[in-house]
Design goal:
By secondary structure, the chain is mainly β. The protein is built from 1 helix and 26 strands. Strands 1-4-26-25-24 form a 5-stranded antiparallel β-sheet, with no helix packed on it. Strands 8-9-10-11 form a 4-stranded antiparallel β-sheet, with no helix packed on it. A 4-stranded antiparallel β-sheet has the order 12-13-14-15, with no helix packed on it. The longest helix is centred in the N-terminal third of the chain and has 4 residues. The two termini are 14 Å apart.
Length: 409
């Protein structure tokens, strides 16, 4: 491992902080409270729906910790998950292959045998997860952009990691989103297992004006979080929607480009992050059957500066984000910390930030964000995904090809 030239040794001095509601104050062990970490002007004058929905108080970690670069030899890594033995399984977006990286930085040869990806622009080999019984069946599941008649789609596949770890055996596409579109943007692409053993998958609305409204359509699987079985069928217990043609796999809808999914370690609820346009990145707590508003409501504007739709941020029947960012940080992969090596991180949410080039640590209490910290900002990396290893450390991959290990000093 290559040690960074610095160690994150953060101040234990207490900054003055006042809050009108004690329930919004950081919980015990969150760290030292500071001014909000965002100091740049917002893109809009939109008002939050409730106190603390954006620009919450800053937080710094009191425990001394460090970050090591495990390797810089990856090619466009997009997803990372820890194997039971502590090694890291990584998707490589542009090559459509997997790599295994040891904690000592040894990188395997590319693992082949996956269906072909369309790596153009935001497409390629995206998120992955391990079967809950991986130790016995060696099954993995992943999302990728697939070229089909009519354009591109977000697809889900599964396969078995061969005993020699050189290939994926029996790779099978189990789910294809619809409709196809020539756009090579906004695929979503995260995947995880929920507590019932079913797959939760995020899909983007493909960005273009033609498909954007389909985030609100229950007959299309774009701009959705879907819930399917290991065989790609709609999962038992999914919400039931009225109207002809409503897709039975839909779990939630009204999403833009959701690139983060994580299950809360205590409540087992699914949390999700998604990219906004110019402003309006969101963190959501998913509730089955709920509409999260895009593009009808948003805290962002068009990249041109024009308003989106009716320029409204609230509407009856549409969920508010737990938290939003303006300007954007471009939130990507995320994970809850369940280790005990850094006590103040317990049950905190860590999110990779692309455009703002840091890892966001969010302290959450009673389903509200009560503190925000920016980690590794000086590295200048686009943090694409983050996971926790069995050793209790956090591991993060960046678009530039790095894998970091973050742990107590």
């Amino acid at each position: 491992m290559k040690n960074l030239k610095y160690i994150f040794i953060l101040s234990s001095a207490l900054f003055a902080f006042s809050c009108s509601n004690n329930d919004d104050a950081p919980g015990n062990g969150g760290g030292t409270v500071t001014d909000p970490v965002e100091t740049n002007p917002a893109n809009t004058q939109y008002k939050p729906a409730f106190t603390g929905q954006t620009r919450i108080a800053g937080m710094t970690t009191d425990t001394e910790f460090k970050a090591d670069i495990v390797t810089s030899a990856l090619t466009s890594p997009w997803g990372v998950k820890a194997l039971p033995d502590g090694r890291l399984l990584v998707t490589q977006k542009t090559t459509g292959t997997l790599r295994i990286v040891t904690t000592a930085g040894v990188v395997s040869e590319p693992i082949t045998g996956l269906p072909a990806v369309n790596p153009a622009n935001q497409g390629g080999l995206l998120g992955l997860c391990l079967d809950p019984d991986f130790a016995n069946n060696r099954m993995i599941y992943w999302v990728f952009s697939e070229a089909v008649t009519g354009g591109n789609i977000s697809s889900v596949a599964k396969g078995k990691l061969a005993a020699n770890e050189k290939t994926i055996e029996g790779a099978t596409v189990i789910y294809r989103s619809s409709p196809a579109n020539p756009s090579d943007l906004h695929y979503g692409g995260r995947i995880l297992f929920d507590q019932t053993g079913n797959l939760i998958v995020s899909t983007g609305e493909r960005s273009v004006l033609q498909t954007r409204p389909l985030a609100q359509s229950l007959t299309a699987s774009l701009g959705k979080v879907i819930r399917i079985t290991k065989d790609g069928q709609p999962a038992s217990g999914n919400p039931t929607f009225s109207g002809a043609g409503a897709l039975p796999e839909i779990f939630t809808y009204g999403h833009r480009n959701p690139q983060g999914l994580a299950m809360h370690p205590v409540t087992k609820e699914i949390w999700q992050s998604e990219h906004g346009p110019r402003g309006g990145d969101e963190l959501n707590r998913l509730k089955a059957g709920s509409n999260y508003g895009w593009p009808t409501i948003t805290y962002g504007i068009e990249y041109s500066g024009d308003p989106i739709g009716d320029a409204i941020q609230q509407k009856e029947g549409m969920e508010q984000p737990v938290y939003y960012w303006d300007p954007v940080i471009s939130p990507s992969g995320m994970t809850f910390y369940t280790g005990n090596r850094v006590p103040e991180w317990e049950n905190n949410l860590f999110i990779g930030s692309l455009s703002a080039t840091h890892i966001a640590r969010l302290v959450i209490k009673d389903n509200k964000v009560v503190g925000e910290e920016r980690l590794l900002a000086s590295e200048g990396q686009r943090f694409r995904d983050i996971t926790q290893g069995p050793d209790g450390a956090l591991y993060a991959v960046t678009d530039q090809g790095r894998l970091y290990r973050i742990d107590k000093k």
